[in-house]
Amino acid sequence: MLKGLIFDLDGVLTDSAAYHLQAWNDLAKSIGITLPPAANDALRGRSRMDSLDLILAYGRQQTHYTLAQKQALAASKNTHYQALIKQMTPADILPGIVPLLDAARAAGLQLAIASASKNAPTILTQLGLMDRFAGIVDPDSLQHGKPDPEIFIKAAETLHLAADEVMSFEDASAGVAAIKAAHQFAVGIGDATVLAAADVVVPTTAALNFAALQQAFTAQ
Ligand code: G6P
Ligand code: MG
């Protein structure tokens, strides 16, 4: 029986994924790297340092920087990102999300956040959504990033729910892989080809419908 919903944040509740990408693109350019179109999905859901490593790999610059230099590059991206998200308000919640959260609450479901972002609490506060979530996984408590299942396993644990009692939402292929590795029901939001491993894929959050999702979950 469905008892809880687990949400990725960036690109699911709000379009902060676009800000992450913009800040990474600018950082990459500053060190002479042009990101390929595939970076749009590949960077989604990856921790800050994993993202930087991927960018350096795109530019074949993995060995060009010391750990301290990499930490400085990551910090510079984060400063830029924090400036971009400063202006976010509840108007930046993506279409379909508030009705979904309302329907879930009306059905007595528990909600949790599984975001790798250390900026997640700031964004949730700015969106006015902080009080909706009973559990928020602390990214500092994680050993492995997505596509490892750890974050989704921990999110279900914060709600005291089993893997087959939750439905998890993601916009990244690495995130969908993490959900499936955690043996949970996956809802992908985005390109059906990229997110083919999900149990259900919708093109945008506007197409999320609680009754239809509940039906798909029961029918699995
Ligand atoms: C999320 C985003 C990634 C981001 C990661 C770390 O998973 O999808 O794009 O790199 O969080 O975010 P942070 O705000 O801690 O740098
Ligand atoms: Mg995401």
Automatic annotation (TrEMBL):
Q: Which UniProt keywords apply?
A: Isomerase
Instruction: Give the domain of life.
Output: Bacteria
UniProt keyword Isomerase, yes or no: yes
EC number(s) per UniProt?
A: 5.4.2.6
Output the Pfam families linked to this UniProt entry.
Answer: Hydrolase (PF00702)
**UniProt GO molecular function:** beta-phosphoglucomutase activity
The record's annotation in InterPro entries points to:
B-phosphoglucomutase_hydrolase, Beta-PGM, HAD-like_sf, HAD-like_SPP, HAD-SF_hydro_IA, HAD_sf, PGP-like_dom2
- EC class: isomerase
Q: Which family does it belong to?
A: Belongs to the HAD-like hydrolase superfamily. CbbY/CbbZ/Gph/YieH family.
Q: How is this protein named in the record?
A: Beta-phosphoglucomutase
**Which gene is annotated as encoding this protein in its UniProt record?**
pgmB
